[in-house]
Amino acid sequence: MAEPLLAARGLNKQFRSGNQPVSVLSDLALQLGRGESLALTGRSGSGKSTLLNILCGLEQPDSGRIRVLDEIFDSGKPAGSSQVEARWAQLRRQQVGVVFQEANLMPALSLLDNVRLRARLAGRSEDPCRDWLERLGIGELAGRYPDQVSGGQRQRAALAMVFAMNPALILADEPTGSLDRHTAEAVTRQLFELQARHCCALILATHDAELATRCTHHLDLGHQPEA
Ligand SMILES: Nc1ncnc2c1ncn2[C@@H]1O[C@H](COP(=O)(O)OP(=O)(O)OP(=O)(O)O)[C@@H](O)[C@H]1O
Fold first, then answer.
1. Nearest residue CA, atom 7 of ligand 1?
2. I need a surface site. Which of 40, 102, 149, 165 has the fewest CB within 10 A?
3. What is the pLDDT of residue 54?
4. How many other C-beta atoms are found inside a 10 Å radius of the C-beta of residue 209?
């Protein structure tokens, strides 16, 4: 069997609430291959965003091992933290596209220039950038700045950025959460089409049960063992 693109095991994460440790992830394991998709579900506060943050290196687990492509991050073998951060940053630039609840756009750049910058940083062509904005229904807003568009339009621009970088792995946190039903359906279609066409892996955190059924795998964080 081909090696999975992403593999994680023994992931643990606690936060503190006052003096009390609160376990969010407990001995969690997952793996995902090219062309596969995983729906992350669970009640609010069950750890979906925390897990996505850990899987792209924006947050550190207390323990555990993660492999993304050829990069291995093992809490049992600590490297210098700046070296670890640099490896994660390189992955996020070229191989791991993230679409989080707060769209991460550069405020001083137009939507189109945000998408172009993302493509350039990933070493991809800038030619299809305008087309991605068109396909996500915000082509006429290409010259606007992020503070001149709505939250849902910023979220679509963030998706265009991920599509333009053509990553091996996409991590999306409620990517259609702030969109109306019609737009959400169009954006979801694009997301799954892109994933199928480029055979990338997709992890989607969602409260939408119908959306979760479209993924090839399902992990309900609400069913993790209690600490
Ligand atoms: N930096 C932090 N410090 C303390 N607690 C935190 C921190 N980040 C998250 N938490 C807590 O960890 C738990 C998991 O949060 P997380 O955002 O991962 O949940 P979620 O499943 O994504 O929720 P939602 O569906 O509401 O987005 C919550 O109880 C949250 O309050």
1. 15
2. 102
3. 96
4. 9
Cross-strand pairs, 71: 68
SS3 category, 21: strand
Of all atoms in ligand 1, which is nearest to the CA of residue 50? 18
pLDDT tens digits along 57-92? 999 999 999 999 999 998 866 666 788 889 999 999
Distance in angstroms (rounded) separating the CA atoms of residues 138 and 129: 12
CATH class of the region 34-61+95-220 = alpha beta
Residue with tokens 């809490």: 75
ipTM higher than threshold 0.90: yes
Please provide the average confidence, as pLDDT, over all residues in the chain. Answer: 90
**Sign (positive or negative) of CA dihedral 132, 122, 65, 31:** positive
Task: Look up residue 60 and give its two tokens.
Answer: 């550190």
The domain spans of the chain are: 34-61+95-220
Give, for ligand 1, the residue of 26, 40, 46 to mutate: max count of ligand atoms closer than 8 Å to Cβ. Answer: 46
Give pLDDT tens digits for 19-68: 888 899 999 999 999 999 999 999 999 999 999 999 999 999 999 999 99
Its pTM stands at 0.91
